Amino acid sequence: MLRREGWRHGQNKTRRVYRELGLQLRNKSPKRRVKAKLRDDRRPATRSNETWAMDFVHDQLATGRKLRVLTIVDIFSRFSPALTPRFTFRGTDVVEILEGVCNEVGFPATIRVDQGTEFVSRDLDVWAYQRGVTLDFSRPGKPTDNAFIEAFNGRFREECLNAHWFLTLADAEEKVETWRRYYNEERPHGAIGNKPPILLQNHDGATSPPP
Fold first, then answer.
1. 152 exposure class (CB count in 10 Å sphere: 0-12, 13-18, 19+)
2. Tens digit of pLDDT for each residue in 107-160?
3. Domain Integrase catalytic, which positions (predicted)?
4. Contact predicate 72/54, CB 8 Å
C-alpha cells in the first residue's frame, strides 16, 4: 500500500517508525485478512457494468466429486457475464476469469463480493487496483448485503443444478453455459419488465479499463 502511494521505504524502517510513534502493530500472521467493509453509500445501479455481484455455488458430479461454480451477475441488467464450474478455485483463477470476461463485455466500476478466501486474496486486490475496479465486501455473516447474487444463485440452482446430472467437468461446463445463454437471451426477468437481460446489457460501454 505504501509503494502504491510512492513511498520507497523498506519494511524494517516502516516498522521502526511505527514503534517510535507508538502506533499499534498488526500481528505477523492475522487469522483473516479483511480488505474492506460494507460501504454506506450504496445506490441502485443505473446502467450496465456499474455494479456486478460475484459468489460461489457448490454442487457435485454424479460420481460425488465436489464442484464449485463462480457466478457473476450485473445488478442493473441482470445479465450474467460468466458462470464457470471448476473443482477448485484460487485468487488467480478468479482474476483469469474476470480478465477474460471484462475484455468481452467491459470492466465494471464495482464488484460486490463476500469475504471468501478467493475474494480477499492479494491477486484479486492487485487486479482490481490496476483495473480501477472497486471491491465492495459484504459484512461477515450478512448474505443480504449481496442479495442480488443470492437471488441469482437460487434461480441457477433451481433451474440448472437441480435439473441436471453432471457426469464430468466438461459436461457441467456445457450444461451450465447452455443455461447461462438461455437466462441471458431468452428467459424473461420480472424485475426488468419481463425482458431477457441481454436487452438491457450495454454493448457500447467501455471494453478496456480506465486509464
1. buried
2. 999 999 999 999 999 999 999 999 999 999 988 777 778 889 999 999 999 999
3. 40-204
4. yes
**Cell triple for 113:** 463480493
Phi, psi of 97 (to 5 degrees): -65, -45
In a domain, 143, yes or no: yes
Residue whose C-alpha cell reads 431477457 in the numeric block:
196
147, amino acid identity: A
Position 7 in a domain: no
Q: 9 in a domain, yes or no?
A: no
Using left for φ > 0, alpha for ψ between -120 and 50, and beta otherwise, residue 201 falls in beta
- Of the candidates 178, 41, 167, the residue with the CA atom closest to the CA atom of residue 110: 41
Query: In 3-state terms, what secondary structure has residue 57?
Result: strand
At residue 182, the 3 state secondary structure works out as helix
Residue 151 is part of a domain; what is its CATH number? Answer: 3.30.420.10
Q: Does some domain include residue 45?
A: no
Is the pTM higher than 0.85? The answer reads no
Residue 51 dihedral angles phi and psi, to the nearest 5°: -140, 125
Please report where in the chains the cell 460468466 appears, as a residue: 82
Within 13 Å, how many C-alpha atoms sit on residue 11's CB side?
Answer: 3
Place of cell 465486501: 137
What's the CA gap between 166 and 62, in Å, rounded? 6
Structural domain count of the chain: 1
